[in-house]
Design goal:
This protein is α+β, with helices and mostly antiparallel strands. The chain has a single domain (6-184, 228-285, 309-338), classed as 2-Layer Sandwich (Ribosomal Protein S8, Chain: A, domain 1), CATH 3.30.1370.60. 42% of the residues lie in helices and 22% in strands. A seven-stranded mixed sheet has the order 2-3-4-13-5-8-9, sandwiched between helices. Strands 11-10-12 form a three-stranded antiparallel sheet. Strands 1-14 form a two-stranded antiparallel sheet. Strand 6 (150-151) and strand 7 (158-160) form a beta hairpin. Helix 1 runs antiparallel to helix 2 and helix 2 crosses helix 4. The protein is globular. The structure holds NADPH dihydro-nicotinamide-adenine-dinucleotide phosphate. Residues 122-127, 144, 146, 162, 164, 179-182, 186-187, 190, 306, 308-312 line the site of NADPH dihydro-nicotinamide-adenine-dinucleotide phosphate.
Amino acid sequence: MPTASAVTLTLDEVHALATRCLTVNGCDADNARAVADTITAAERDICASHGLFRLPGYIASLRSGKVNGAAKPRVEELAPAVLRVAGDGGFAPLALQVGRAPLAARARSQGIAALALNDIHHFAALWAEVEPLASDGLVAFAFTAAFPYVTAAGGRRPIFGTNPMAFGFPRPGKPPMVFDQASSALARGEIMIAARDGHSVPPGTGIDAGGNDTTDPNAILDGGAQSPFGGYKGASIALMVELLVGPLIGDNLSFEAKEADNDDGGPPRGGELMLAIDPSRFGDPDGWAAHAEALFERMLEEEGVRLPGARRHVNRTRTPIDGVRVPEPLHAKIVALCAV
Ligand code: NDP
């Protein structure tokens, strides 16, 4: 299958295009900027499944009225180390931006703090959410759910979201170590891109409507289900994430998000949990960073080993110079969405 031709955009052009499209379709300036920041960061690091690729979904939810494009997220205190952002039915990026500094301040004053984000619509990659906290010297976690796409261990019915979790660990003077992974064998966006581009997906990605293993992305997306990564171990991570961002913080489970959804193709309505830890408030305030470096150095002595996040860091040195390649059909679709 031939690869579609691409349009090369600078990162500023990506941001401007996303901002224009969101604004024309009903976002206020703050919400449009926050979502455009998120999309541009994904394009900058070449995480294509969470960059401009997501913009038509964001726009669908503005047009359907599911998402409040003028949301005013508010920070509330639930306990000294527990904060909440009431998301006002908006997209996640502005709620996350509003909650970040208060979360960091509470982590420093209490040693550890949690931020629950409620009533938001999440469609993005989580690394961009833990990275600023870890760059600021805090250990950080983020968890969110999705729609029910992934089977439980031993099951055939999709019940869990692809439920990503991200973890960031600071490295003073260097970019933090950040990993961010879906609890499905493959992120849904990657399956959608494989379907779009006519590629198969690796064995173990999912099952078809009849419960049979398949490498056909369309069979997984149309009535099939995704498999958790690593069998029952990944299923337990997905289960944990459901419990953290549903019952714990008082928001939707993935299947509840689906039942309440209008099927506009945009993000689910639900919650997110973030945790931040100040390493200087634990047992080795002066030595933790060097101790962690000893591990990283030992790992990297071995050929073929890299740290999670290293691929993105290489990419972000290139894209400001080379720009990013956006498939021509996607670019044309976004340009059309700018003309309401
Ligand atoms: P990947 O499997 O591509 O990568 C997972 C992690 O492993 C990344 O941190 C990656 O770092 C790291 N990694 C990959 N290869 C290696 C290696 N050889 N050595 C060391 N580390 C490695 O991600 P997923 O497909 O699981 O998830 C993709 C994205 O989808 C995530 O950003 C996630 O947040 C997002 N997502 C969002 C959802 C939502 O509803 N909002 C739902 C589900 C997923 P690197 O980037 O450097 O390769």
